[in-house]
Amino acid sequence: MTITLMADHEYAAQHLASGRVKIEGFDVEIVWPQGGAGSVYAELFQDPPYDVMVIPMTNYLIALDQGEQLIGIPVFPDVSFPHLGVQTTENSGITTAKDLEGKRVGIRGWGFNPGTWMRGILADQYDVDLTKIDWVEAEPNSLMKVEYARDERFRVSKGGDQVKELESGELDAVLFDRAGPSLAGNRKSLFQNPLQEAIQYYQRFDVFPVNVMLVAKTNTLNENPGLARAILRACDT
User: Where are the chain's structural domains?
Assistant: First the structure.
């Protein structure tokens, strides 16, 4: 039986695909979605077409909450600190993270992984009261086809093009992924030195924010004893 592993173009996956690193004892085919892994994330909630797949950590947690039969494998091909993607504008009146309270802040989907991490970081590292922010979701995002609950403590509404809304003043800040779009016009980074803020977060909490992780169908692991350990060994090579 050939086991399909859906991956993005991470460094480790390229070695698996080339055959340089093997998942010993199993016939594994590496699958690269044409539009990248992100193009199929939402589809993975309904009978995933792959046996093992790379998905954002928050997508996995939401899938579990909805009863999907998936098991996480502790392989994290991508970790990133979302401090780098928080943008505001010169005329927003925002100079510190605490200033986000009482403002309209964009996020690319309430369950969007980098935004979820950044909300937690705002609360833990900067003592921001997240219930005092008006959150504005945008599409497309990796969960836009998935119905999932928003915590009633938070004010969450729908928006549009977040770059345009930030530049026009409709939004006061946006939690972008990665480093966000290149700074232009009146947009600026919330943090003068985002990398230093990320280092301080790690030094204080000893946490690397996980972006994506490997998960497998429960029945795939049940039918292939030892597969999860073989994947772990291959990724440790």
Answer: 2-80+209-235, 82-205
Coil, helix or strand for 206? Answer: coil
Does residue 43 carry a pLDDT above 80?
no
Specify the CATH class of 82-205 in words.
alpha beta
Pair 24, 230: CB distance under 8 Å: yes
Q: Which of 155, 77, 141 is nearest to 112 (CA)?
A: 141
The string over 78-96, giving b where at least 16 C-beta atoms fall within 10 Å of a residue's C-beta and e elsewhere, is: bebbbbbbbbbbeebebee
Q: Give burial (CB, 10 Å; 0-12/13-18/19+) of 30.
A: middle
Q: Which amino acid is present at 11?
A: Y
pTM of the model: 0.92
